[in-house]
Give the backbone structure.
Amino acid sequence: QVQLVESGGGSVQAGGSLTLSCATSGNDSINCVGWFRQAPGTEREGVGEISAGRGTTKYADSVKGRFTISQDKAKNTVFLHINPLKPEDAGVYSCAARTKGVGCTWRLRDFDYWGHGTQVTVSS
């Protein structure tokens, strides 16, 4: 079992920056942590992921250059830094963990555990 808790969401002006945190805990070994977002009326979208071992990251084309994922292994926490924020970045951001297999696969179905999400609002 793995638990994930997101934090750091809030209301930010477009052009600003924000760092979201995903604190993980539990007994299973995590191979990959992904970040996802969902705006009202849209499907969940993967924005990026990081492999727990090597720290290799991958990002969706729509966020490359603005989103940065990092991890603090000592604190079992993965971060998502967004800079600069755009109005279209608004939504609920969730992190998810993959515990089976090796590394990351960029497949939604491979994530086993999910956090509840944190809301990001962007004002223009």
The mean pLDDT is 96.
